[in-house]
Write a structure and sequence with these properties.
Elements (H helix, E strand, L loop, with lengths): L1 E5 L14 E7 L8 E6 L3 E6 L13 H5 L5 E10 L2 E6 L2 H9 L5 H4 L3 H7 L1
Antiparallel strand pairs: 1-4, 1-6, 2-3, 2-5, 3-4, 5-6
């Protein structure tokens, strides 16, 4: 599980929905955090970042730094809990990701830049 800090002042917590799919994108060139992981959602684009500070990571979840080396440059998570404008999400297992790919209605189809390549490997 990870904590997502939403920074979308325009939409507030509106992009966050229980069960919603979030695309996780590594930002190695981020000038504030070399282990930054941006979070994107369908219809809203970038909504925030995976928390990477002891003061912002919810107890029991992993920081961006702990998750960084465990995921590919582009990965996915599902929102499990919403707390104000922040969320706690479960990083999808490979099996869960495949189920999302098999569902033509899944947001994965609209968020994944290289879905065709991923499907060929599956």
């Amino acid at each position: 599980y990870i904590t997502i800090q939403s920074f979308n002042k325009l939409h507030g917590s509106k992009p966050l929905k229980l069960g919603g799919i979030v695309k996780l994108v590594k930002e190695p060139d981020n000038k504030y955090d070399s282990e930054a992981i941006a979070c994107e959602m369908r219809y809203f684009g970038k909504i925030g970042y995976v928390s990477n500070s002891t003061s912002t990571v919810a107890k029991g979840t992993m920081s961006g730094g702990r998750v960084y080396d465990k995921i590919s440059d582009e990965y996915f998570a599902r929102i499990q809990f919403i707390i104000g404008t922040d969320a706690i999400a479960k990083v999808l297992s490979e099996e869960e990701f495949i189920k999302e790919v098999e569902n033509p209605e899944s947001d994965v189809h609209f968020l994944c830049d290289h879905l065709e390549e991923l499907e060929l490997k599956g």
